[in-house]
Design brief:
mainly alpha; 3 helices; 0% strand; 77 residues
Length: 77
């Protein structure tokens, strides 16, 4: 990689609205998961929500990683 992942992520967060949306949604999923995990007991609905959030968060991470790879490949010096 010509640029560090953190550098590319910062560039994309600034310049790419879709990437920025993915980052924001990833953080929202993470925040909600922390809320659910911190509860002593969760309902069946919350358990389903937790699984859905984990899947969504992973999907977003995969999308961001692909966009970072694409950016890096396109901007090799």
């Amino acid at each position: 990689m010509s640029n560090s992942i953190a550098d590319i992520q910062q560039i994309l967060t600034t310049e790419d609205p879709e990437f920025r949306q993915w980052v924001e949604e990833h953080h929202e999923c993470e925040d909600r998961l922390h809320q659910l995990i911190s509860k002593s007991q969760i309902t069946a609905e919350e358990e389903i929500e937790e699984k859905r959030l984990k899947k969504r968060k992973l999907h977003l991470k995969d999308q961001m990683a692909q966009r970072i790879r694409t950016y890096d490949t396109a901007h090799v010096a």
